[in-house]
Design goal:
This protein is mainly α. The chain has 9 helices and 2 strands.
């Protein structure tokens, strides 16, 4: 019998994300950027809302091609703000454009954004939670990374968003101990 983290049981889309993406390590800059944007868009909303709109985001944001998004002008931002199929929050959309520019800056400095973001840990952190209630919203490490990202110029990267991003990219494994996907990292 397959056991999942409680949050993943609300829909097939949530199950699919949980089973095939969440907590799987990735060092692909395009994927990292996509997840950073989605986590930023999720602030104040449910993750299911973001997953429901994910394909719309992909279409509206040029498949999360940060090299294109970094060059979005005011006309493109206005177009995104008028798109009813995505989250039309001006600050979040501007942050997505800004953060695409920051990804390019990090690539110039480190070769890849993933080199920088993964430098905060030697290997994925595996927590041993018995229930979802034990999982924190942020940690000292997410606060540190948030502070560093903000110092560089990233936007909408508070400690809670960063912690969720760390979970999403597999930097932190927060599957509960009884979850069938706890040690499946491929």
């Amino acid at each position: 019998m397959t056991v999942r983290c409680d949050w993943a049981k609300s829909s097939l889309l949530m199950q699919d994300y949980h089973d095939h993406e969440w907590g799987k390590t990735t060092q692909d800059d395009q994927k990292l950027y996509e997840l950073l944007v989605l986590e930023s868009m999720q602030a104040g909303l449910s993750w299911s809302t973001i997953l429901d709109k994910r394909e719309n985001f992909r279409f509206a944001f040029d498949q999360f091609d940060y090299t294109k998004i970094a060059n979005y002008d005011e006309n493109k931002i206005a177009e995104l703000l008028a798109e009813p199929k995505i989250i039309r929050n001006r600050l979040k959309i501007r942050a997505a454009v800004n953060n695409a520019q920051m990804i390019l800056t990090m690539q110039e400095k480190y070769g890849r954004f993933s080199t920088y973001i993964w430098s905060f840990v030697e290997h994925p952190i595996i927590n041993h939670w018995q229930s979802m209630e034990e999982i924190p919203a942020s940690t000292d490490l997410s606060k540190q990374i948030s502070k560093e990202l903000k110092k560089i110029g990233f936007k909408f990267v508070g400690p809670t968003i960063v912690y969720s991003f760390m979970q999403a990219i597999g930097m932190i494994n927060d599957h509960i101990e009884t979850c069938s996907f706890k040690y499946e990292n491929k």
